[in-house]
Amino acid sequence: MTATERSAQRAVDQGAALVTGAGTGIGAAITERLAAQGTDLVLVARDSARLEAAAAQLRAEHGVDVLTVPLDLSRQGAPAELAERLAEAGVEVGVLVNNAGAALVGTVGGADPARIRGLVDLNASAVAETTALFLPAMLARGNGAIVNIASTAAYAPAPYNAAYAASKAFVLSFTHALWHETRDTGVRVVAVSPGATETPMNPGSARGKRRPGQVADTVMAALRGRGPAVVDGRAFVFQTFVFSRLLPTRTAARITGSYFRKGALRKQS
Ligand SMILES: NC(=O)c1ccc[n+]([C@@H]2O[C@H](COP(=O)([O-])OP(=O)(O)OC[C@H]3O[C@@H](n4cnc5c(N)ncnc54)[C@H](OP(=O)(O)O)[C@@H]3O)[C@@H](O)[C@H]2O)c1
Questions:
Q1: Which end of the chain is more exposed for a tag (fewer CB within 10 A), N or C?
Q2: What digits encode the pLDDT tens for the residues 78-99?
Q3: Which pLDDT value is given to residue 267?
Q4: How many Cα neighbours within 13 Å face the side chain of 31?
C-alpha cells in the first residue's frame, strides 16, 4: 500500500476534514488545529509543493494522515473532480472547510474581466458546488460539519474591492440559508467571517489585525457552537453590527470604500 493509499484508508476509518486553501494563512492554521485534535486531513490548493510541505509537517507533528489534492478550484468542474478523486480513494469527508479565496483590490472598470470572473468562480461558485457535493453523504450519515469562510466584507458593499465583498455576501447568505435547511439533521453549518488578518493575502501587521491562529480558534469554537454565522474578534463583531444593522448601506459603502481605496492607490503606485 502506498503512503497515499494508507492516508486514504485511515481517512475512511475516521472521517477526514477537507480544507481548501490549506497551504497558507488561515487555512494552514485551521489544519493545524484540526490535526492537533487527531483529525485526518485532505488539503486542497493549487501549489502542490507547498501543500506537500504542509502535509509532511502535519504528519510529523501530529501523526495524522494527510492527503493532498492540488487543484485550481476556480476551474469549471474542479469541485466535481475533487469529489470523484476522494470517492475513488474511499475517503469520507466528516468536516468540510471552504476556505480558499482571493481578493482583487482596485476599480471594476480597471480590472481584467477574466480575473473578476475567476474570483467569483473561486469565492462563490466553488463554495456552493463543493458544499452541494459533500453535503448529501453527511445528511445520509446524520453527522458532519461545513464551515464556509466569509469575511467582514460580506456585511457591506466594498468599493475598490467590489467583486470580493459581493462574493463573500453570497457565501454569508448561502450559509445562512443552508443552516436553516439543515437544522435538526445532525450536520453543523456555519459561516465564519474574519476581518483583516495577517496572511499572504493581506500582508503586514497593521494595528487591530488578527493572526491566522486567532481565526482558527474562532473556527474551532464555531464548530462546537449552534448559530449560523460567527465574526472573528470583538472589534470586527462590533464593526459588522454597525455596518449591517445601524448604518444606511450607502454610508457603510462610503466607509469601506475609503479603506479599500488606500489599498487600490498603493497598488497603482
Ligand atoms: N486575510 C484577511 O484579511 C482575510 C479577511 C477576511 C476573509 N479572509 C478569507 O480567508 C480565506 C483564507 O485567506 P487567507 O487570508 O488565509 O489568504 P491566503 O494565505 O492567500 O490563502 C488563500 C488560500 O487559497 C488558495 N487558493 C487561492 N486560489 C485558489 C484556487 N484558484 N484554487 C484553489 N485554492 C486556491 C491559496 O493557495 P494556492 O495559491 O496554492 O492555490 C491559499 O492556500 C479566504 O477565503 C479569504 O477571503 C481573509
A1: C
A2: 999 999 999 999 999 999 999 9
A3: 75
A4: 35
